[in-house]
């Protein structure tokens, strides 16, 4: 069945090439690039002229005016056939092409800012679940960290960008959905309308009772044993802040 399908696809591609020439096959790649199911570009050779790259087909002509899949990777060419690099807007969506011209996917650090490019290569915005964690990306695509107000609710995004949940962030608590709790009891601690722990109602020092984690040679304590900073650590201790002897909380989990 698969062999028959491949033969049919090859036959269609050949028919298009014979009937309409090189440009038609390139157009097919451009139309379906986002779905990653287009025909691969014709066999050819990379060439460099005046410091810029272009792709010449063995049968004549060259890739131009859109996407072409070459050796399993996607490349973007302008109307003159020059290979594009860096950030490019195509069809209202942003893509990032590496220095080699190949379209990138997954996490990308550009300067000091992180971006996420989905499987189609398009830059993601808003809430995105990646590797089991939630991240929030601004309209510019920039990954956000720290306290962020989204849709009327406050969330805390760790230094890694991952959303915190079911944990205290200083004097504030975020629930299982990541939303900062307000006007409610969290165990024996009460948080007010601004989400801050109200000591007058709780009457207990949170730092004296909350379990934290640390290692002997570390300079900070951690709010969770799963903190990325502790992944390679051994001899992890647990107890109160006072027992840890540390005065600062880890920036990744606190």
TrEMBL record:
Ranges occupied by Cell wall-binding repeats: 64-83, 84-103, 104-123, 124-143, 144-163
Pfam families in UniProt: Choline_bind_1, Choline_bind_2, Choline_bind_3
Keyword Signal: yes
Highest taxon above the source species: Bacteria
Record's signal peptide: 1-29
Keyword list, A-Z: Repeat, Signal
InterPro entries: Cell_wall/Cho-bd_repeat
Keyword RNA-binding appears in the UniProt entry: no
Annotated Gene3D superfamilies: Cholin Binding
Protein name (Swiss-Prot/TrEMBL): N-acetylmuramoyl-L-alanine amidase family protein
């Amino acid at each position: 069945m698969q062999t028959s399908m491949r033969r049919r696809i090859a036959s269609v591609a050949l028919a298009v090439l014979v009937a309409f020439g090189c440009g038609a096959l390139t157009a097919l790649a451009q139309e379906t690039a986002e779905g990653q199911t287009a025909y691969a570009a014709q066999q050819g050779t990379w060439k460099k002229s005046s410091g810029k790259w272009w792709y010449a087909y063995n049968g004549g002509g060259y890739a131009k005016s859109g996407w072409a899949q070459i050796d399993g990777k996607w490349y973007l060419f302008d109307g003159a056939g020059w290979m594009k690099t860096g950030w490019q807007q195509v069809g209202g969506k942003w893509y990032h092409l590496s220095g080699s011209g190949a379209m990138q996917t997954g996490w990308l650090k550009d300067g000091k800012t992180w971006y996420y490019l989905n499987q189609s290569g398009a830059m993601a915005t808003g809430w995105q679940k990646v590797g089991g964690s939630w991240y929030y990306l601004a309209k510019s695509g920039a990954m956000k960290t720290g306290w962020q107000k989204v849709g009327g609710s406050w969330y805390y995004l760790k230094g890694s960008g991952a959303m915190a949940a079911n944990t205290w962030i200083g004097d504030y608590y975020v629930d299982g959905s990541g939303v900062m709790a307000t006007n409610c009891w969290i165990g024996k601690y009460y948080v007010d309308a601004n989400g801050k722990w109200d000591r007058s109602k709780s009457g207990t020092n949170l730092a004296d009772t909350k379990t934290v984690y640390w290692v002997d040679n570390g300079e900070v304590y951690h709010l969770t044993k799963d903190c990325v900073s502790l992944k390679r650590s051994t001899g992890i201790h647990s107890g109160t802040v006072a027992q840890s002897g540390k005065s600062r909380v880890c920036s990744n989990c606190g």
